[in-house]
């Protein structure tokens, strides 16, 4: 099972950062569980999110009194529990090396 999530703006910088961190965090935790996702889709999704980050960082900051609710950008992605998801592909590689070593 695989799904791609995209959200359309408009976002200010705060809201865009909040959404990007949230979605990238989900990708880090959930994106590695099939071989095709592992080697292809998830790395591409993460690269795409990085590209989006540079676009979001250029957005204007929210102005005081701006209508609509502002999202809290929250903690940097690497300070979140989801960062542990970065270890999953390493675990895969270790597993495959182990299997290869055992088979030879
Ligand atoms: Zn906003």
How is this structure best summarized?
The protein has 104 residues and is mainly α. It has helices spanning 13-30, 35-57, 87-103.
Explain this structure.
This protein is mainly α and 104 residues long. It has one domain (13-61, 79-103). 56% of the residues lie in helices and 0% in strands. It contains three helices and no strands. The mean pLDDT is 89. Bound molecules: zinc ion.
Write the layout of secondary structure elements.
Blueprint (H helix, E strand, L loop, with lengths): L12 H18 L4 H23 L29 H17 L1
Helix pairs in contact: 1-2
The structure holds zinc ion.
- Given the structure, what is the number of helices? 3
Total number of beta strands: 0
Number of domains: 1
- Portion in helices: 55-70%
Query: In this structure, how is the largest beta sheet organized?
Result: none
Low-confidence stretches: none
Any key phrases for this structure?
3 helices; binds zinc ion; 104 residues; elongated; mainly alpha
């Amino acid at each position: 099972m695989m799904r791609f999530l995209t959200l359309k703006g408009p976002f200010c910088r705060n809201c865009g950062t909040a959404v990007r961190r949230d979605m990238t965090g989900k990708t880090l935790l959930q994106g590695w569980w099939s071989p095709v996702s592992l080697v292809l889709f998830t790395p591409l999704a993460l690269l795409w999110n990085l590209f989006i980050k540079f676009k979001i960082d250029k957005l204007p900051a929210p102005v005081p009194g701006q209508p609509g609710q502002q999202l809290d950008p929250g903690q940097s992605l690497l300070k979140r529990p989801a960062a542990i998801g970065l270890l999953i592909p390493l675990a895969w590689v270790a597993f495959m090396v182990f299997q290869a070593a055992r088979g030879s």
